[in-house]
Amino acid sequence: TVVFDASALPGPSVAIAGPADGKSGNANEDFAARLGVAGGTTATASASFDPRTTVTQGTLIPAVLETAINTDVPGYVRAVVSTDVRSFDGARVLVPRSSRLIGQYKSGVQAGQKRAYVIWTRLIRPDGVSVDIASPAIGFGGETGLKGKVDGHFFERFGSAMLLSVIGGLSSLTGNAGVVIAGGGQSAAAAAVQQSGQLGPTIRVRQGEPIRVFTAKDLDFSKVS
């Protein structure tokens, strides 16, 4: 007799989470409020930087990846600036071509995610001048993150589930062969299915990929330029 103990399989659990304060709100409005975007307020203009020595926030810095990215584990990444970047008034080159970019990328990619999130932390010019930039990598279309080849780990995620299906099929075919599938073993297999099902995808971005850096803050070169 074949016994297939399906009761050991974990049942589906659904967690429904609402707002912590019990109030319903618009996520876009909350995001705008955090950034200080509110109607009815007055913004005062000021001359806060020298246009001759500043690369302003929002400047796009073209670059090329020198090291590949694999999001299985977090790590460092390096790129080289491919085009001269001038001051706000265009009078001088503040970030020359061949300057180096140092950054970091994260792992823990979520299901469905297709872009690797990279933050550039430091820019080093050929003359030794460096600046902390803390700015994200973007694609040439302006999308945050770098698009790469996505490995969804299909067999790693669903191999255990397929194995359980095979075991279940065998249990119905063997009749009275005297095979017993213990509930404890079935429970362990079910746990393996649950664990492998949580495996996120891997994103790989090749070496030599053209990218851009979205400058997240003003870069002041007044003391070195």
Defining traits:
2 domains; 225 residues; 6-stranded antiparallel barrel; disordered N terminus; Lipocalin; 3 helices; flat
Task: Please give a structural write-up.
- The chain is an alpha+beta fold.
- The chain folds into two domains: 53-149 and 205-220, Type IV secretion system, VirB10/TraB/TrbI (Lipocalin), CATH 2.40.128; 153-197, no CATH class.
- The chain has helices at 27-34, 154-173, 183-197, and strands at 3-4, 54-55, 60-65, 69-70, 75-81, 85-86, 93-95, 100-105, 115-116, 118-124, 130-138, 146-147, 149-151, 180-181, 202-205, 210-214, 219-220.
- It has a six-stranded antiparallel β-barrel with strand order 3-5-8-10-11-16. Strands 4-15-13 form a three-stranded antiparallel sheet, with no helix packed on it.
- A hairpin with a 5-residue loop joins β10 (118-124) and β11.
- α2 (154-173) packs antiparallel against α3 (183-197).
- The protein is flat.
CATH class of the largest domain: Mainly Beta
What fraction of the residues are assigned to beta strands by DSSP? 25-35%
CATH-assigned homologous superfamily of the largest domain = Type IV secretion system, VirB10/TraB/TrbI
Taking all residues together, what is the mean pLDDT? 78
| Domain module tally | 2
User: What's the total number of strands?
Assistant: 17
- Specify the overall morphology: flat
Largest sheet: 6 strands, antiparallel, barrel
Could you state the order of secondary-structure elements as H and E?
Answer: EHEEEEEEEEEEEEHEHEEE
Using only CA atoms, what is the Rg?
A: 27 Å
Alpha-carbon distance between the termini?
A: 84 Å
The appropriate CATH architecture of the largest domain is: Beta Barrel
Helix content: 10-25%
Q: Regions with pLDDT < 50 over 5+ consecutive residues? A: 1-24, 178-182
- Which structural class fits the helix and strand makeup? alpha+beta
Compute the number of helices.
3
Widest sheet: strand order? 3-5-8-10-11-16
CATH topology of the largest domain: Lipocalin
